[in-house]
Amino acid sequence: MIRSKQGKKRGFVVLVTAVSLIVLIGMLGLAVDLGRVYIVKNEAQAFADLAAIAAARHLDGKQAGIDNAKTEVANSTNGWDFGTQSFPAAIRTVEFATSATGPWFVTPSGSLIGYAFVRVTVNPVVNLSFLPATGSSYTQTVTARSVAGVVPATFPLGGYLPFSPFAHNNTDPNYGFTIGEDYAFHWPSNVSAQGTACGGDQVSWPLYNFSSTVPGQVRGYFELQSASAIGNAILGGAQVLALAVGDVLNMTSGNKQAEAAALTTRAGYDTDQTNYPATPGTAPPYFGNGMRLVVMPVNDGPSAAPPYTVLGFASFLLNTTYAVGGGNKPWCAIYMGSTTAGGMEAAVRLTSPGLMW
Fold first, then answer.
1. Which residue spans within the chain are E strands per DSSP?
2. 0.70 exceeded by the pTM?
């Protein structure tokens, strides 16, 4: 009788142990498979986020911008499955839209102006090892998606200034400019001597004596005519139109030297008030809040006749002050480098990242 009870106890222990092992192995398998799925989700989302941001930087209202955005996604080196697998064309989609909510088009047609948003979607397939034993599929598709857009910055940083410097070179990626050197973005009706011009414009003088090589009414302003509108654009960064490389700039007339006060006011908003000297070849060690760091479209003059064409966009550091009624003194700024096509002092932002199964 006693032996029979002991045998039953042993059998029960063996049965419970067997059931427990099955449950534990099942839970371990579940954890392994689900863990792999979540890792792939994070890897896929990182790819979509970074690819969308990189692609959006190319959107400039032109077909070339769309093509370059697609190429940017295709060339991304981020992978999944611990970086051992890529995201080939078969599992990724790149779409474009004029708003963050769509509608979305893989190949936009017609006018491309306004296509400032890109959506990147990837669908990697994870092979499962243990979950199929529970009746699940042998694979799990993971979907990661991100939307990035070129969103114009708002005041106080604002948009591009309503000035357009002349390129010194139409093929150099820096437009013939030297980083750290001074260049004129506004000039008076007459420059009395070479030494009174901005440092960078004194090179190959008098070709860049703009007061004698361009029509008398051209002073560097484009599109805007009234002094109040120009002042608002300087202080608030009002976007007149979305410019892209190849667009035409209609230069406006008038000296409007009173706008120097608006430039000085804008520069005064900056947290860095150091009056950096021009040092050709070296960008100044600027550490401000961005109010003096401005973007302007660079045009193909003065060798060409107006209206001029946008060659690209460049970043300049404003001086701390601009003299009102400066006579024949051009207004100079330090060249800091070329900047993103589109020239809206735009921020490329993720507008709706998300993870989906």
1. 92-97, 117-122, 125-127, 139-141, 143-152, 182-186, 218-222, 248-249, 251-253, 293-299, 308-318, 331-338, 346-350, 354-356
2. no
> How many C-beta atoms lie closer than 10 Å to residue 242's C-beta?
18
CA 193/CA 31 separation, integer angstroms: 78
Residue written as token pair 């060339």: 75
Full DSSP string of 64-122: HHHHHHHHHHHT----BTTTTB---GGGEEEEEESSTT---BSS--S--TT--EEEEEE
Over 70: is that where the pLDDT of 20 sits? no
Question: Of 69, 100, 58, which Cα lies nearest the Cα of 346?
Answer: 58
Rg (CA), the chain: 30
pLDDT, tens digit (0-9, with 9 covering 90-100), for 167-186: 998 877 788 999 999 999 98
pLDDT bin (cut points 50, 70, 90) of residue 287 is confident
Please say whether the beta carbons of 355 and 41 come within 8 A.
yes
Cβ pair 46, 57 in contact under 8 A:
no
Q: Are 161 and 234 in contact (CB under 8 A)?
A: yes
Q: Which residues contact 211 (CB under 8 A, 6 or more apart)?
A: 187, 188, 189, 190, 191, 328
CA nearest 105: which of 92, 113, 89, 117? 117
Please give the average per-residue pLDDT across 300-310, as a whole number: 80
Cα separation, 245 vs 172, whole angstroms: 15
Q: What is the bridge-based pairing of β-strands 143-152 and 354-356?
A: antiparallel
In whole angstroms, what is the distance from residue 336 CA to residue 333 CA?
9
Distance between CA 259 and CA 331 in Å, rounded?
A: 11
- Residue-wise pLDDT for 201-213, tens only, equals 998 888 888 877 7
Rounded Cα distance, 79 and 87, in Å: 6
